[in-house]
Structure formats: structure tokens, C-alpha cells
């Protein structure tokens, strides 16, 4: 690819993830997007994968047992001249650090909210990570075919709970059984929920934002309420501000119903038009790297092991930050300086694994790995070494004590533990007093995967004793006094030797802060 071709290819890329609370409708909406992209022909394909009936699946054994996807995958399709990459963020019981790390590899996020429930816990956590990156966040208020909360409340909640301005791009005309359609403020039209007799789906609005009086609107009162809401939004609501949107300070809000495929394509069209193409990446030394830099480089944001139990392979997911990836190219692993040839690459589609021939900045490639890569690693093809900024650490919330079941097998226990921790599969801490091993995770499944892999890959059976959920807070080593530790705030050190307390609950943490007002407690992301 020459320079212009690379620029054109990068400009086409739209790489994003969906953040939501379980059951808000992420799977359903993803499926609709894949339908529009022509990746799947029938609704039900993605859901079938989720429920374990997916014929072509070759996911790791634990995934098959549970019928859920353990780690995120990537779906790619073309829509209106753009190449869309959707990075899946595991959300149910499979919520893990991978979910967070995936958000480091996207250029935008889509937040799906159940309009009957509003903003829920997991959405809040994921939002925090995305917000910190300062990337655009688009909101889809789902399940409009059911009675939900007042749309004005939902918009207000964005600001109250998340601290982001909401700008309603369209507005529901009724809800549940009374859903008439969507009032599109920007395209100046009404999108009917069901086509009218003439089969029209879109009705134009006049300069005053009103429908032609001759249009048959089944429920006048709903239409009048909509006009009242729109007047209120125009007068007292937020002004649309693209600059704020791009910085993640304002979120364009779209309403719809993923299940009945209403408002989803409108959302997709607007998203594709507004979402950014890949932009510069900040490197560890503070320099900025252009996505159209001619030399290929990228970073590993996830390593998935044993996707195919027959092959015991691992796949390192690389987000391309700059240049073009070509099969068979030589790259250098920045951390070790080792040069390797990238012969075996895969790309993940919704329902098949295809070998990638070439990909550019914004795309994700999966590289077969025999143990070379670690999460956060950079690879580059040019002469100049490239090191992407380190991935942030996340604060684990769940903890377990772990020991080897068979004391004679300490060696494989330590080896497995060391490798899995290095890979970023789980966090490891040691207690100060007794040097016990404590594992930390953001989701329960990380423990299960850990146990499974210790057994299967390192032949080490482990015993895990739950400590439960804890609030982890780091403190400055100079302020540490081991006497500060009690049963309610377990003192441990992380891999780097930095001390932290695992507080039993908020109450224990406040008690500690009252007792030691000078000690500064800090969290990771
Ligand atoms: P998730 O991936 O975010 O966890 O959510 P998912 O899409 O699986 O949706 C969760 C439930 O909500 C599903 O129902 C799904 O059919 C339903 N749903 C999604 N979008 C809409 C919508 O726009 N309107 C309505 N009314 N429901 C919606 P389920 O009964 O749990 O699963 P299923 O039996 O339908 O598969």
C-alpha cells in the first residue's frame, strides 16, 4: 500500500466496543449490526453462540461447558464504505480484566442501556474506564417496545450518575404498546414504529419540526407530548457539540428497540458518520505516533489460551496502532528485542476464523503465540523501536487464597502461577506476615479459568479459599506500619512489592481513614 492508500484505508476504520450491564441487550444489538453488515443472514446466530448451540464453535473447553464466551472476540464488517470492527466485551459471569483491557484497544464506545432500568452497576464501571481514555461514547437507550422510564429522566441520569452530558439525537414518541415512532431531531423526520398504510417508514418534518397535518397519526396525544418534550429539549437541553462528543464529554443518545430492530440502523448510520477513524497513539516515551506511519506497529491487549483444545494454541490479540500488517512480515518484540516472522495470523469474524492477509491501523489481528507475548507488549516492523504506553492496571474486587493441593508438586504450581500472572490472566499478591498467595480478579470467571488452566496446562491442582469481595487500596510504602493491618484490612503486597490493604467493606475503609487521616489511599483504574 502506498501512502495515500494507507491513509484511505485507515480513514475507513471504525473500531468500537459495546459497554452495558448484562441483559441490557448487547447481544441482540450486536446481532442486528452484523445483519446490517451482511456477516450473518439470520437473527439468532450470535444468541445461539451465547447459549451454547453454536455449531461452528471451537472455543475453549470451559467456554463450551458454560455456554458463554470467556474472552472477547472481534467482529468485522463493511457498512456504507466503512470497515467496522466490534470488539466484544464479555459481560455476564465472564466479566474480567479482559473486558477492561479491550476498552484500551477501541476508538469509541457504544453504551447500551435498558430504558426500563437506566444506568446499572456494570455500565458504570465500564464507563469509568472509557471516560478516562477521553474517547467518544454513543448511547443507545434500548427496549423502547416495553414501558420504560421517562426519557427525560434517562437523559438527566447520564449527567447525574456518569457526569456526561446527554444530547438526544432522536426522541421516543410513546413507549411500549403506545410506541409510535422516533422523532429524529437532526434528520428532521419521524421514523414510524410500524409502517403506515402506504408503507412509509419516514415522514418528513416541516421547518417548525411538525408533521404534515394530513399525515395519519394514530394517537394525537402522544404526538403532542413529543412536541412538548422537543420544545423543552430545544430550550433547556444541552446543545449538540461535536467537539465535546469527540472528547467524551457529551454523548449522543439514540432511542430504539434492538429486539424489534427499531432505530438500530438509524443509530448505526449516525454512528458510522460521527465516530472517529483511528487517531494518534501515545507512546511510553510521550511521543505521539500517527496511524499512517508507514512502519507497522501495534500492542497486545489480550491473550487467549487454548481456544482449540486439540491444538493448545494461544492467540495474542494485537491492536494495530500504525501502518499495515502483512502476513509473513518480520516484527520485533520491543520488550525482548526478539525478531519474529508473523506467518500465522487470524482474524475473528462472528462465525468463522479467517486468515488475515493484510490489515491496517484500527484493525485487530490475532497472532498464534507459543509463549512469546505478554499483555501490553508492543511489536514493530520499522528500524525505530516503538513502545506503546503501558496498559493501566485495574483494581481487582474479588480475592482468593490459593495453595497447591499436592505439596510435592510445588514446582509446577509455581511455574504455572508465574506464567499465568505474567500473562495478565489474574493478579497475584502476597501477605506480609505469612507470605500466602492471594489472587485478585475483577470477575469470578478469572478464578475458574485460572484453576482450569493450572490443571490442564501445568498439571497442578490448586485449592482456592474465597476471601470474597474486598476494596483494594494502595498506600505509599513510607507511610506503612504493619500494625495498621487487622482482620478487616488485610495487608498484602503486589508483584512490584507495593503495599496495599484489602478492606472488608466501605465501613472498614472509612474507619481506617479516620484512624490514619494522613495516609493516602489510592486505587488503580
Ligand atoms: P446482553 O447481551 O446485554 O446480556 O442482552 P441480550 O441481548 O441477551 O438481551 C437480554 C434480554 O433482553 C433477552 O431476553 C433479549 O431478547 C431482551 N431484549 C433485548 N433487546 C430488547 C428490546 O429491544 N426489547 C425487548 N422487549 N427485549 C429485548 P431473554 O428473554 O433473556 O432472552 P431470549 O430468550 O429472548 O434470548
Automatic annotation (TrEMBL):
Family of this protein: Belongs to the TRAFAC class translation factor GTPase superfamily. Classic translation factor GTPase family. PrfC subfamily.
HAMAP family hit by this protein: Rel_fac_3
InterPro entries associated with the record: EF-G-like_DII, EFG_III/V, G_TR_CS, P-loop_NTPase, PrfC, RF3_C, RF3_dom_3_sf, RF3_GTP-bd
Name this polypeptide is given: Peptide chain release factor 3
Tr-type G domain: residues covered: 11-279
Signal peptide from the UniProt entry: none
Subcellular location per the Swiss-Prot or TrEMBL entry: Cytoplasm
Keywords: Cytoplasm, GTP-binding, Nucleotide-binding, Protein biosynthesis
Binding site for GTP: 20-27, 88-92, 142-145
Entry superkingdom: Bacteria
Lineage: Bacteria, Bacillati, Bacillota, Bacilli, Lactobacillales
Function of the molecule: Increases the formation of ribosomal termination complexes and stimulates activities of RF-1 and RF-2. It binds guanine nucleotides and has strong preference for UGA stop codons. It may interact directly with the ribosome. The stimulation of RF-1 and RF-2 is significantly reduced by GTP and GDP, but not by GMP.
